[in-house]
Amino acid sequence: MRAMFACLLLLALLACAVPAMAAPPGVTPQGDALSLYSPPPRYQIFQAPKPYGGMLMVDTKSGKSWQRVIVNTPQGIRIRWVELPRVEKFPSGNETILWN
Predict the structure, then answer these.
(1) What is the pLDDT of residue 87?
(2) Which pLDDT does position 76 carry in this prediction?
(3) Under 8 Å between Cβ of 4 and 11
(4) How many other C-beta atoms are found inside a 10 Å radius of the C-beta of residue 84?
(5) b/e string for 38-68 if b means 16 or more Cβ within 10 A?
(6) Does the pLDDT at position 97 exceed 60?
(7) CB 15 within 8 A of CB 22
(8) Helix H or strand E segment including 18
(9) Of 20, 23, 26, 43, which residue is 20 to 30 A from 98 by alpha carbon distance?
(10) What count of other Cβ atoms lies within 10 Å of the Cβ of residue 82?
């Protein structure tokens, strides 16, 4: 009876693992290995260390980015997202990139 119960329990556990082993559409074979990936979420939020940035949000499809700004208005505190300008070329000179 114990052996039968153990076999049924093992089959139940294996049946639960089958959906996790199913390959999503993003399957890329690489030699003998099989690599699985999923696309990133469209909007990603990063916390940059102060005083450099605070909270930043990036749109992975368009490349636009926004910085969170907390504003004290007469109606109360508001959180706004200010779009950051996109830098295409870095000016030459004695500038240093502090973080990327």
Answers:
(1) 78
(2) 93
(3) no
(4) 14
(5) eeeeeeeeeeeeeeeeeebbbeeeeeebbee
(6) yes
(7) no
(8) helix 2-21
(9) 43
(10) 9
